[in-house]
Each structure stands twice: as structure tokens, then as C-alpha cells.
Amino acid sequence: MGNNERSTSEEGNNDEVPLMALNHVSRLCSSVENSVEFYTKVLGFVVIERPQAFESSFSGAWLFNYGIGIHLVQAKDEDRLPHEDKDYLDPMDNHISFQCEDMEGLEKRLKEFEVKYIKRTVGDEEGGPIDQLFFKDPDSFMIEICNCEHVKLVPQGSKEQLRLPPDRHIPPIELNK
Fold first, then answer.
1. When comparing pLDDT for 143 and 11, which is higher?
2. pLDDT of residue 86
3. Residue 8's pLDDT is what?
4. Which of 34, 42, 54, 73 has its CA 20 to 30 A from that of 123?
5. Is 144 annotated in the active site?
6. β pairing state of 24-29 and 68-74
7. What Pfam families does UniProt report for this protein, alphabetically (predicted)?
């Protein structure tokens, strides 16, 4: 067996899901070029090579940074894209959230690129309140930037089922309760 393989007799539980981490988020785009420009210039993602099989199958781009990939796919049907008002920002909408170590710097960057956003601060939890910035990408997909490392995640049971990255996890997880 390889380093990551485990037998069910060693584990004692053959129901364990073999997931490791979030790999990528995929977004349909009205213009892959516009989305690449947004994600690289505004959020600092880097274009990476796509496997040749994808290049010949459909138009798109792969981006990576911060341990996560974003796969941009050229929409063939505009009806599959969000049809929301691009200026309407609701923190309760579906969104992807990125952890940020410099909220002021990111807010300055959004202003520099004239990205419309809303800012809010919630809670007064241990370690400080949570600051959030919400905005949309060129195809109206909601993005959140936050400093959620201030809030510990406390499992409500089954903490023995938690599988964490070997180095560290942000936000921190309280396992002693």
C-alpha cells in the first residue's frame, strides 16, 4: 500500500470519506479573458497551464494561488450565468470566501480597481470582530474576503471525524470541548 492508503482493518472504519481539501472552484464566464484579468489583477491569482485535453475540449483558464484553484469556463449558454443586478450586493447570497491577512490593504485594492463592494463587521467574538468585504466578479458571482481567523470553530459532536491539514488550519479549531 502507498503512504496515503489505509486498510479497513487498520482503520477499523470503512465509512471514512477519503477527501483531503478543497481543490478548486469552477466558474462559468461570459468572457474568460475578463475574468482572468479580474482574478489576476484584483485578487492576485496566477494563470497556470491547463491539461491539453481540456484545451481542445472547451475554452477556459485555470488560476491558482493561496492553496486553491479557480477554473474559468467559457459559457456556451448565457442563460447559465447569474442574472442578478451586478450592483446588488447581499452577503447572504451564495459566495466563495477567502481568508485575508490585511483587510485594509485589500479594501484599498478594491478601490484602486473600482470594484463596488460592501463592508461589514460582525460580532465581538474571542480575538476580535470579523471584518468582511463582499463584491462580485465580472459574471456576478459573489466573493467574500474576511479575517475569520479570529473565530474558533467548535465541533458540535463527532470531532473524531474531523480530518485536518497536517500543518495548520485557519480558522483554528477547538477540539477540547
1. 143
2. 76
3. 41
4. 42
5. yes
6. parallel
7. Glyoxalase
Could you tell me the three cell numbers for 173?
479549531
Q: What is the 3-state secondary structure (H, E, C) of the chain?
A: CCCCCCCHHHHCCCCCCCCCCCCEEEEEECCHHHHHHHHHHCCCCEEECCCHHHHHHCCEEEEEECCEEEEEEECCCHHHCCCCCCCCCCCCCCEEEEECCCHHHHHHHHHHCCCCEEEEEECCCCCCCEEEEEEECCCCCEEEEECHHHCCECCCCCHHHCCCCCCCCCCCECCCC
| Location of C-alpha cell 479594501 | 107
Average pLDDT for residues 91-109, to the nearest whole number?
89
pLDDT for res 45: 95
